[in-house]
């Protein structure tokens, strides 16, 4: 079956891209600042008795930080819903021309790493409670 003429050249308006980039940059900046403050507080305000737990929390927060920087500044995916498609408008896609599927693989790896460290922190806290 052929694609109808109105879908052959489906693009989004440049205004949507600009607004989306502005929103992602704003949200990413807020998230990065909050992550940096949280890392600072975890390192300085956590009691020394919780040293193992503190290391896990710092690594978990670093995972959040790397994910936010990648998603909000370097990748910036723009999904074309309701179609199962999308394109990358981030810094690495526009300057270095890294493919979107590599960004999606990195995103999946970072999400898996974040979940793993969250689980490790949860187990460490559970062991302390027992």
Automatic annotation (TrEMBL):
Stored Pfam families: 7TM_GPCR_Sri
Transmembrane segments: 20-43, 55-80, 100-123
UniProt keyword annotations, A-Z: Membrane, Transmembrane, Transmembrane helix
Signal peptide: none
PANTHER family linked: SERPENTINE RECEPTOR, CLASS I (PTHR45830)
Name of the molecule in the record: G protein-coupled receptor
Native species: Pristionchus fissidentatus
